[in-house]
Amino acid sequence: MQIDIITVVPGLLEGPFSHSILKRAAEKNLLQVNIINLRTYTTYARAQVDDYPFGGGAGMVLMAEPLVNAIEALQKNTMYDDIIFLTPDGETFNQQMANSLSLKKNLMLICGHYKGIDHRVREHFITKEISIGDYVLSGGELAAAVLTDAIGRLIPGVLNDESSALSDSFQDNLLAPPVYTRPEVFREWKVPEVLLSGNHKLIEDWRHNQSMERTQKLRPDLLDKP
Ligand code: 6GU
């Protein structure tokens, strides 16, 4: 899978993909993330990429020209399944969207900044608009990193234990059960006995009950979902 991210702040995206699981995904050639600096695609003086909004108002707007130059240049080399604009007014990202995006071959992510991007780009190039939650970030970069992480770890072969993505919280609209590791007793706090029993059926039942109880208590809304 290939994910190409267009940004005016490439530095914000250099860290997240060079560690741990996403680094391993890249090393195994399962996921290639390319960071594209929008400023390399502007023809304006001093690498200008934004301008004042028509009609007035606070903040700057990313101009159509550099964005379209970048998008069309990338499209010369790659057929994109989706061109996604990260924006607080997009569809709220969830596990189901991560699952479906993880089946795609090539994605382009566009990070907005300032007050957003010229609306004509949204109308003519963007195929999906995604938000990561009801709060405002200063740009789409951290949201793009969140999406890439959530999608990347679902690509078959990226996680060592294939079943581990399927048992995540949210894959079945249930929160995950508590987990413990050694030692069995820490400061007199004991690990639940059942987990040491070696009885897989009992353990599975216990985990399911814990998931149900935790979901009921912490996220009852998830239990009403289809
Ligand atoms: Cl995708 N972008 C920005 N700027 N803020 C957000 C967001 C995205 N999702 C939630 N807040």
Give a structural overview:
The protein has 226 residues and is an alpha/beta fold. The chain has two domains: 2-152, SPOUT methyltransferase, trefoil knot domain (Alpha/beta knot, 3-Layer(aba) Sandwich), CATH 3.40.1280.10; 167-224, Trp Operon Repressor, Chain A (Orthogonal Bundle), CATH 1.10.1270.20. It is built from nine helices and nine strands. It has helices spanning 11-14, 20-27, 64-77, 95-101, 119-124, 141-152, 163-166, 200-218, 220-223, and strands at residues 2-7, 32-37, 50-51, 61-62, 82-92, 106-111, 128-131, 185-186, 189-190. The strands form three sheets. A five-stranded parallel β-sheet has the order 2-1-6-5-7. Helix 4 links the parallel strand 5 (82-92) and strand 6. The longest helix is centred in the last third of the chain and has 19 residues, at 200-218. The relative contact order is 0.15. The mean pLDDT is 94. The site of 6-chloroguanine has 13 residues, from strand 5.
- The CATH architecture of the largest domain comes to 3-Layer(aba) Sandwich
For CATH, the homologous superfamily of the largest domain is named as SPOUT methyltransferase, trefoil knot domain
Number of domains: 2
Please tell me what the overall shape is: elongated
Q: Strand fraction band? A: 15-25%
Mean pLDDT: 94
CATH topology-level name of the largest domain: Alpha/beta knot
- SSE order: EHHEEEHEHEHEHHEEHH
Note the main sheet. Answer: 5 strands, parallel
Broad structural category: alpha/beta
Give the helix proportion (percent range).
25-40%
The Rg value, from CA coordinates, equals 22 Å
Number of helices: 9
- How far the N terminus sits from the C terminus, by CA atoms, comes to 29 Å
